[in-house]
Amino acid sequence: MDPETQAAVDELRKLITMSGTINMEIFYWWCTAIMVMIHAGFLAYEMGASRVKNALASGVKNILAFAFIVPTFFLFGWWIYLAFPGGFTIDEAGVAGLPWSANMGPNLTDNASGVFWAAFTMFAATTASILSGSLIERIRLSAFIILAVLLGSVIWILAAAWGWHPAGWLHTKLGLHDVAAAGCVHVIAGFFALGVIINLGPRIGRFAPDGTPMEIPGHSAPMTMIGLMMIIVGFFGFLGGCIIYVTGDQWINIYGQPATLSAFAFNTLMSFAGGIIGCFLMTRDPFWMMSGALAGIISAASGLDVYHPALAFLIGFAGGCIIPKVQDMLIKLKIDDAVGAFAVHGAAGAWSLVAAGIFASGYPSAAGPDSSLYGQLVSLAVFASLGFIPGFVVSYVLKLFGLLRITPGAEIAGLDLVEIPLKPYPEGLTPSTNGNGHAAPQGVPAE
Amino acid sequence: MNGSPVTAWEGTEAYFTFADRPFLIVVALVLTAIVTVGVIVHSAKHETKAFRRFP
Fold it and tell me: Most exposed residue of A167, A286, A357, B4, measured as fewest CB within 10 angstroms of its CB?
C-alpha cells in the first residue's frame, strides 16, 4: 500500500473508532436517562401505596434514597465493583474507581468511566428504591437512608462484582449466567428488604390482635399503577445498560459472550406479557397485574439474551403466577411487606436464576465453566445470603438503639403531619380515609 | 481562583478542576463525605425531636 493510501486508511480507522466511542457514550447516556424513569415510577408507586397521611413522607424517602446513593456510590461504590470480582481480595483494577482517580472526572482519554459509573449508579438507586416500598409508613427516614446506602452503594455492587462482572468469581468459578442482573439487583434487594421488615415489624393495624390480616389500602391505586408502568419504561433503559457496546463488532453481554439487543427486545416484551397474564390469572387485581409485569421481566432476566421468546413468555408467566402466592405466605407469617417487594424482586429474581439453570445450561464462556443448574443454585444461595444477612443485622442494631422505627404516636398521626411542611392535596380534595387509616366505608347508594 | 490544571488542550488527559492539586481534591472529597454523613445525623436528631410530640 502506498503511503498516501495508508494515511487515508489510518485516518478512516481513527474516524470509525472515534465515532464508535461517541456512539457508546450516547447509548449509555440515554440508558441512564431512561433509568431515571424507574425512580419516577417508584416515587408514584410508593406514594400511591401509602395512606394519604403518609403520601409525601413516602415520596421524600424515595427522593432521598436517590440523592444519597449518588455521592456514596461515587465515594466508594464504583471502587467496590472494580476491586472485588475475586471475592474479598482487592484487585488492582479498583484503583480506577477510587474517587481521586484521574478516571473519575472529566478526562479526554476516558469516554467510558463516567457513563458506566452513571448507569451503575442508577442500578444502585433502583436497589434502594426496591427496599423503600416495603418499609413505607413506619421506618425512620434516617434509618432508611443508612440502609439504602448500605444496600445501594455497598451490598448490591459487591454482589455485582461477584456475579455481574466479566471476572466475577460466580461466573469464572461456577459459570453463573445472569445477564440482566436478576441476582445482584433483585435477589439482593428482595432478601435485604426481607431482613429489614422482619425487624421493623408490621404497620399498626396490619394484623388484628388475633393475627387476622387487615388490608391497608393505599390512597391512590391509579397512582401505583401508573408508577408501575413508568418503572417498566425505565426497565428498557436498565436492560439496555446490561449489554456492552463494542465498536466495530457484535454486542457482548456483561460476561463477554456475544449477544444482541434484539434478543433483549424479544424476551423483555414476551416475559412482560407473561407476567401480567400470570398475575391476572391468579388475582384479577390490577395492582398485582402491573407487579406481574415487573416480575415477568425479572423472571426472564437471567437468560434474557438466550431464551426463545416463547420460553421467555412461559418463564414470565410462571413468575407472575408465583409472586402473589409468595406474598400470601409472608402475610401468613405476619410479615408486612407493604408493596410486595420481596415477592416481586426476591422471589422472581430467585426463580430467574433457577430458570436459567433449568433451561439455559450448557452455554459456553471464555472466562469460566459452562452455565449449569448447579452454578445457578449456588449463586442464588450466595446472593440471598449476601442480601439477607446485612439487612437483618444492621436493622437489628438500629432497632436495639431505638433508631429503626417511628413512635406509635407518629405512626397513628401520620408522617406528613409530623415531618413534612407541606400538604399533599388541597383542602376538600383529600382522598377519604377514616381515623385508623383504613378505607372509609362507602356511602349507601340512593335507591 | 484558577482551577484549571491545563494551559492548552493538546495532549490533555484529566482536566477537571484542581486535577494537578491532589490536596484540594481530597478536601473536596472529605467535605462531600462530611455533608453526606452530617445530614443523616442531623436528620436523625430532627426526627427524634419531632417524635417527642407524638410519643
Answer: B4
B13 within domain boundaries: no
Whether residue B49 lies within 8 A of chain A, CB to CB, comes out as no
pLDDT over 50 at A441, yes or no: no
Q: Which domains does chain A have, with CATH numbers?
A: 11-102+111-411 (1.10.3430.10)
The answer, for B22 touching chain A at a CB cutoff of 8 Å, is yes
Q: Is the ipTM of this complex over 0.90?
A: yes
Per the structure, the count of domains in chain B is 1
Tell me the whole-structure pTM to 2 decimals: 0.94
**Which of A123, A117, A111, A69 lies closest to A97 in space, CA to CA?**
A117
Is B1 a member of any domain? no
pLDDT in tens, A84-128: 999 999 999 999 999 999 999 999 999 999 999 999 999 999 999
For A222, residues 6+ apart whose C-beta sits below 8 A from its C-beta are A48
For residue B2, is it within any domain?
Answer: no
Question: Could you give the CA distance from residue A275 to residue A20 in angstroms, rounded to a whole number?
Answer: 36
CA-to-CA dists, residue A258 to A18, A173, A178, A268, A365, angstroms: 22, 20, 14, 18, 10
Task: Give A407's contacts in chain B (Cβ within 8 Å).
Answer: 51, 54-55
Domain residue limits at B26? 18-55
